[in-house]
Structures are given as structure tokens and as C-alpha cells.
User: What shape does this take?
Amino acid sequence: MNKTIRIGTRGSKLALWQAEHIASLIRPSGYGTEIVPIETRGDKILDVSIAKIGSKGVFTEEIEAKLLDGSIDIAVHSAKDLSSELPDELELIAFTEREAVNDVLISNRPIDITNGSTLRIGTSATRRVAFLKHFYPNVQAVSIRGNLQTRFAKLEAGECDALLLAYAGVHRMGFDNYIVEKIPTSYFVPAVGQGCIAVECHKKLAFDKKEILERWVNHPATAVCVRAERAFLKTLHGGCSIPAFGYAHFEGDLISLKAGLISLDGQRVIKVKRSAATEEAKELGELVANEVLTIGGEQILKEIRQQLNNA
Ligand SMILES: NCc1[nH]cc(CCC(=O)O)c1CC(=O)O
Assistant: This one.
């Protein structure tokens, strides 16, 4: 029996860290691991914002091709970067235990975001730009792309006064010392899947390997929450380029999901919070999404599609 799990991943430092983390969870099982770095379209195109090149699969297509042809066993992704719809032959088999899901403000000097008339905050995620406009109308959002190291270099070079990033990535890359503020999830709701690492595989992956992943890598409580969030996103037909947000966590025995949409100008926030039993995670996501669509989300999505087409 072949007892080596071949792990496909993007080649960025964060992606390699995540793949290495998955390998470290697999290792105690007795199975070996091999990491296979794969370059994606999203890694090559650095000068246009992701929203404009069309988000669908830019960081995953080449990796999924290798899952389909069997040259890797699993692919490791930030759960956040995964499109809500996978190719039919593939599935998500494991989600790692989630750490802090917050966004954080990063700088090399003290920053007061509430007094931000002259602050330039580097970010390119549509959700963060819209939330900045909504909660901190005085700050200026400047588009900063590239991997985390590139973004830090741009901060150091003075292209912005601070960066707005996911805590998870900052922490994994060892940049904790630069965190000047942890922004509460109570109002700055994270992106779907933020802080969680997802493992994707072929539905026909060998049974023993599937069992290893389910037993040693998957964290059931996180998995059920992220599945609720992803059901929400799927019902909106959204990828990572729409300003949707969604965060589920346990409140006692129930999953509580807070999710919604924000208009690109930050003017309108549609937010719904509901809870359900764990067996109903998927239905919870769908229910919340349909409610968001009904109370104004449909209109926001329509406007966003028009604006992205015209950009
Ligand atoms: N969109 C890029 C991306 N994808 C995953 C992470 C960090 C890790 C995570 O959120 O799980 C980041 C960087 C960021 O948003 O700051």
C-alpha cells in the first residue's frame, strides 16, 4: 500500500506554511507526506486587482487539475480563498481548527484608526474596503496586492500607513509584533472561511488516505461552522471578490451564523444572524443567505456585478 500523501499547494510562504502544517498533522498517523508546490494564474498576475481578473479559480485551477489527474492526493488552501463551488469530482475532506478569525491592523508605528483623517490603509479585499468606508469614513483605502511579504515591504516603503489583514496569515508568518489593533468580529465580520485551512481531494481518493485526513486533520467543530458559512456563500453565488462576510461559531450546542453583504461604497450593510443545530449547518447557511438576498442583498449584488463589469 502507498502510504505517502502528496500535498499540492501554492508556492507562497503562507501557502507552504499551511501545507507544512497539514503535513505535521498527518505525520503522527504513520503516513508520509510530500509537498508539491504549484504555480497558479493568481500568483503570476500581480498588477491587476483580483476582483477585476475575475476571481473564479485564479488561485486554484492549476492545483485542481493535478487533483483530477491524480498527480497529487490532496490540495491545501486557505478556506477563505476557495470558491463556493468545486468541480463535481472533488470534495473538501477536512478543515483545520480555526484560530482567531479577526482582521488586524498592521503597522510599523502607532496608529489611531478612529482619528484617521490622513491615514492610508492598504488592502484590496472588497469586503475590507467597504467596511473601512462604512466604519471609518475618514481613512483612505489604498490598493495593496501581493503576498504578505510584498505587502509588508510596501508598508515599510511608505505606500500606506497601515495594512488591514487577516490575523491568521499575519500570525503564521510571524509578524505578530506589527499588530496595532485587533478589530472585533462583532462589527467587522470576517470573510467566509477566514482563519481555517481546508483540504481538498478527489472523491475517489484511496479510502485509507481519506480516513487519515478525517481522523488526524479535520476539526469537526470548525468544519461544521465553515460548512455553514460556505453554504451561505454558495447560495449568493459569490466568490472572494464580492463584499460578503460570514462567521459561524458555537453558542452552546447551536451554531450561530452572522453573515451578510455590504455595498461597495460602504453605505448599506445587510446583516442577518440566526442559529441552528449542527445537523442543520447547510440549511442555516442557505436560510441566512436567502434572508440577506430578500432584505436588500439582491440589489447590492446586482449593483456590484454592474460595477465590476464596467471597471
Ligand atoms: N486573501 C488572501 C489570504 N488568504 C488567506 C489569508 C490569510 C489566512 C486566512 O485568512 O485564513 C490571506 C491574507 C489576508 O486576507 O490577510
Summary: The pocket of PBG is lined by residues 78, 80-81, 165-166, 168-169, 194-195 (CB under 6 Å).
